[in-house]
Amino acid sequence: MSGELFSRRLPGIDFGPLLRQSREADARTVAAILARGRARDLTEFAALLSPAADERLEDLCRLSQAVTRRHFGKTIRMFAPLYLSNECVNICKYCGFSRHNAIPRITLPVERVVEETRLLAERGFRSLLLVAGEHPKYVSNGYVEEVVRRVLPFMPSVALELGPLETQEYLPLVRAGCEALVVYQETYHEPTYKDLHTAGPKKHYHWRMDTPERAYQAGFRRLGIGALFGLYDWEYEALALAAHSLHLTRTCWKAQITLSLPRMRPAAGEFQPRYVLPDRAMVRLLCALRLLLPHAGLVLSTREPPAFRDGLFTLGITHASAGSSTEPGGYTSFDPEAWKPTRAQEGEQFHIADERPPEVVAAAIRRLGYEPVWKDFDQSLVLSEN
Fold first, then answer.
1. Segment 24-33 long-range contacts (CB within 8 Å, at least 24 positions apart)
2. 197 within a domain of the structure (yes/no)
3. Number of domains in the chain
4. Of 30-34, 57-61, 196-200, 288-292, the least confident
5. pLDDT band at 139 (very low <50, low <70, confident <90, very high)
6. How remote is the C-alpha of 133 from its chain's centroid?
7. Domain containing 168: what range?
8. pTM of the model
9. Does 379 have pLDDT greater than 80?
10. CATH number for 181
11. Contact between 357 and 323 (Cβ < 8 Å)
């Protein structure tokens, strides 16, 4: 890794002209970008977010689809999140896991994690995202490292979404077999970030922002970032996320960069989204990211409803979750036939919108002419080097 950290670069970006471009770009500017087939910088990316680009939405979608097929083929990598714990030391006003919310607190024993992993493997998954609230005990006692080693026989690809750590703390997790780390900045707007994160280590804005670069130094092969849309102005978040992605492609060039665009969903607590990312604007954002970052992975979660997900799959998506539970231990409460919860999941982080079983989502992808890929990575690629 070379160059300064993104947290030091971000203050030097003048968002004023970029935001004006995202709202006022003219049809001629958009047409020139579409004719070229690529957004060359943040200014051109901003133009593709504009109302003028919305007038050319079909052309934008066709171009994004073509660029994605050129680099990824007609495939979508399937994965499942598995929540290890909802215990958390942070207070985040919008999060269901925030320590001030009165939800049942659960941390799964390792054997229960293995049981849940087996259930997911039986549905076809070979790629797992391990998720937990932010609590120091997970790392200090070797819990996560043991979990990784125990699930690898069933899941060749294991990614982590945990509280930010130092590079040295990531090293044992990479040696255990993890290939990816996911961390969302939530909001790139610093005043909003400070207002929403009032206690706990997550309140440190810059520390969180530089997590992908610390993870890269530890040897993770894939780095996932994203913003949670609904916390601040969507055009600003989109521009900052794009800038962060461009930075990581230059400084962490050996890793694949993936981006996620989650929109807020109902969760414990009374927080309501302050801003809205409309459906058509989300389509523009997805396609604009593809034209700016043709090699980046674009992730689609079950936060979005079925019909909208099916419409997005062919426009630039490369990774998709399906049949998800956001409660620790949630999968063992599912009806194995219908793949639906048999009880209320009171400890969930948020309620998903696409509740279709994995095989139903896979069938929908096939009907679109794409192939759901359950495995495209083998643990031996990591373990042989460690």
1. 24/50, 25/50, 25/52, 25/53, 26/52, 27/52, 27/55, 27/56, 30/55, 30/56, 31/56, 33/291
2. yes
3. 1
4. 196-200
5. low
6. 15
7. 75-233+256-278+297-383
8. 0.95
9. no
10. 3.20.20.70
11. yes
